[in-house]
Amino acid sequence: MLRMNGSHPTADEIHRRVRERLPKVSLGTVYRNLDYLARHGLVSAIRDAEGRKRYDASPGDHDHIWCVECGRVEDVRTDSTRHLEKLIEEQTGFEVTGHSLTFMGVCPECRRAALDARGAKRPECGGESLERKSGMRNERANAGEWKTD
User: Fold this and answer.
1) What is the pTM for the complete model shown?
2) Which of 6, 19, 21, 73 is the most exposed place for a label (fewest CB within 10 A)?
3) 27 compared with 78, residue with greater pLDDT
4) HSE-up of residue 149 (Cα within 13 Å, Cβ side)
């Protein structure tokens, strides 16, 4: 269930999906299985900005990016964090054994929805034009002169 869509669902979200196939499964069973998988390194548990525990089917070395609007979480893999770990070791004398790095931002779908809600012009959809939003129109009959409404 976790590996199927690459998301980072909560136990409640997993429970809802599992119940589509196994209607009698309890939430407690889902929690016990997630805890077992986490203890054995098959999944990892991460906390979102609201403190909810989410489960990650890719427990290996990677970071995350969170959408501050909808809560969507995605994995981020980059070699830059390895360089950062080495730099921190050099600066502090610590041996870095792991890290947790989370980027926050607005996902493409939420950005698109916000632009649509504002009626802003987007190249891919040809939203409301700047001159229309500003109350201006092109009076081409007067040699391209711009006039306000």
Assistant:
1) 0.59
2) 21
3) 27
4) 7
